[in-house]
Amino acid sequence: MTAVPAKQVSNEKVLLGDEAVATGALDAGISAAYSYPGTPATEIAEYLVRHAKKHGRPHASWTTNEKTAYEEALGASMVGRRALVSMKHVGLNVAADPFMNSAIIAINGGLVVAVADDPGMHSSQNEQDTRYFADFAHTICLEPATQQQAYDMTREGFDLSERFQVPVVIRLVTRLAHSRAVVQVKPPRPENDLRKAPDPSKWILLPGNARKGWQALLDRLPDIREYTETCVHNVLTLNADDRTLGVITTGTARNYFLECAGQLKTMPSHLHVGAYPLPVQKIRKLLDHVERVLVIEEGYPLLEGQLRGLLPEIKPIAGKLSGELPLAGELNTDLVRKALGLSERTATVLTTLPLPGRPPQLCSGCPHQDSFKALKDVLKGFDHSLVSADIGCYTLGALPPYEAIESCVCMGASVGLAKGAAEAGFHPAVAVIGDSTFLHSGVTPLMDAVAADANMTLLILDNGTVGMTGGQPTMLSSSGIEKLVLGTGVKPEHFKVIEAHPKKTEQMAEVIRKEIDHRGLSVIIMVRECLETARRSKKKVAS
Amino acid sequence: MKRDIIIAGVGGQGVLSISTIIAASALKEGLHVKQAEVHGMAQRGGAVVSDLRLSDSPIHSSTIPRGCADVILSMEPLESLRYLEYLSPEGLVVASESPVINISDYPELESVLAAIKNLPRSVLVDADGLARKAGSPRASNMVMVGAVSGSLPLRQDTLESFITEAFAGKGEKMVQTNIDAFRAGRALSN
User: Does A335 touch chain B (CB under 8 A)?
Assistant: First the structure.
């Protein structure tokens, strides 16, 4: 991807929302950044890893998964440095354990966790809303509406994290993460000095300490609420002349509202929320002022749900829960127009030609194609079979012409699913997982399978790359993965490594067939480098 | 003044490069710009689209509302028809006539081209042919930038300066090829 050249004026840059977060973190004086790749958050860490390669500091690296990324960032905070950890929304499920607990340990160096949600599921398996996680942890969530806010809020997030001693969440959505606009940057702040957390008992969450930490967080909440009540991110504008409608927007929903607002007869009173916990006083002021309110938020109806509560509404509330806006999918200007009562725009230029879809595909010559061909050939010989699979380019094996896999649930799930199916009496149960996903979350269920000698066959498609997110490096080389698998106790006679190659599909099929026939656990690694990775390293050598 | 442009194609055709060059030129000329891209899954040989919005006043949404696009610029004929609901009644479609047939149910090419010709305002461009003439079939996306440039509120030299910048790392010959490709496209738009 070609980057937009920065404008010549030195304090203006053209940045993706993701890159604005990265730049904000750099200018806030971070000492470290960690991440596992995941759309739409990948470009945050890509920017920082590139920056680190060029300038040496701050440290920025990919990690094995989001949990390890979070813990490494927490380590930097423990010794007083600022650290950024970034991930996609479902990555926070993986990092949920350190995230939830880090809210009660009295953060030392500023810790910001940038999480990119994917409403509309452009590249994800759900559209969960990270604002609930921030609420769950009782911490601050900042939700930028623009690239400029992504920069400003990330910068400020580190100050807030140190001031209130909590991890601060920056919640992005796809349309911000992957859109470019001009950002004004400010002079960078230096890195923090090393200063170990002064009171280690706060970081030792033994029940006695944890109770104190939890109480201390609860005691800080009034100050945190005072901040969100008065901060510049929550803006209330009352229209003294018109009391009919109030509009509440959150995050990027404001963009769609402003896009339509000019066409309304009068500008409604408007509260924009960009910082959580919710500014209750401002919400009350708006509701006192208007007859009815429309809530427009990208994601789940978090604010709307709290506003409605359990008891009868004090005023009519419109939003996602009452059907004015859809509960599923991402917002856009057209949906918001309709919710505001403006006339719908209809398409006028049409074609009668039926348009077939054009889904993403495996690259021509991709080694996964050979693995799927071999596997399909073997399974033809069985009346029934189960192929659980995982998350990566090879998930495209669900689509024609392969139609070779039957599940994609979460990172690493293929292994546990196959083991569970096998133990429920199903045979053959085959799990298909990529090398990076295996390292991310497939090793632990493999240990379960080894301990039980589960009657299943695990295929690890090893292309040495995190492919789907654009070709980031994996944490272990092919030989490292072999040693790891054997180290878990997989029987050497049922551990095979074979090249994934179009000329070797019969040989591959033979190995798979034999191992499926083995009543117990087998692991087969099908190995060939990702074509894109090979192309990139060739280019590097040439230049 | 505003120009809402939908740039469409298939993963790998250089859709983002087109978007980037037009966006950089618009910024240079003092316009407000927002550009939405698709990353990740959709890039692998699938349909790719980028919304590019230029205006002399601030822009709020990065995506283009239905019926508002002034131009659909497509690197591929079938893909130019996918986003018609976003085209304004006076909108223009500029499409390459060279298909990328990587799906089994691709319609008859003749019917696709006929559907484009039947639109109120459309231009079909022999992008691959003109790019080959300019020196490289890979410069077809710059032919398309040229072909749409007459409909953009941007100066030719500004666009050319950013094409030069984009290809500078690949040597003088590649720069010239891409400039020539751009000019061949531009000749069609005048």
Answer: no
C-beta atoms of A347 and B38 within 8 A: no
ipTM of the complex: 0.94
DSSP state of B37: -
Structural domain for B20, as ranges? 2-100+109-189
pTM to 2 decimal places: 0.95
- Of A227, A246, A274, the residue that ends a domain is A227
> Tens digits of per-residue pLDDT, A157-214?
999 999 999 999 999 999 999 999 999 999 999 999 999 999 989 999 999 999 999 9
Beta-carbon contacts of A212 under 8 Å, excluding residues fewer than 6 positions away, are A201, A202
User: Looking at the 3D structure of chain B, how many domains does it have?
Assistant: 1
Residue A312: inside a domain:
yes
To the nearest whole Å, the CA of B153 is away from the closest chain A CA by 19
A2 found inside a domain: no
**Residue B140 sits in a domain of what CATH number?**
3.40.920.10
CA B149, chain centre distance (Å): 9
Closest approach of A451 to chain B, Cα-based (Å): 36
The reply to whether residue A178 touches residue B39, judged by beta carbons under 8 angstroms, is: yes
The reply to whether A125 touches chain B by the CB within 8 Å rule is no
Residues 6+ apart with CB under 8 A from B25: B154, B155, B158, B159, B161, B162
Q: What percent of chain A has pLDDT over 90?
A: 91
- Tell me which residue range forms the domain holding A175: 12-227
- C-beta atoms of A256 and B61 within 8 A: yes
Give φ, ψ of B14 to 5 degrees. Answer: 85, 25
Q: What residues of B are in contact with residue A254 (Cβ under 8 Å)? A: 60
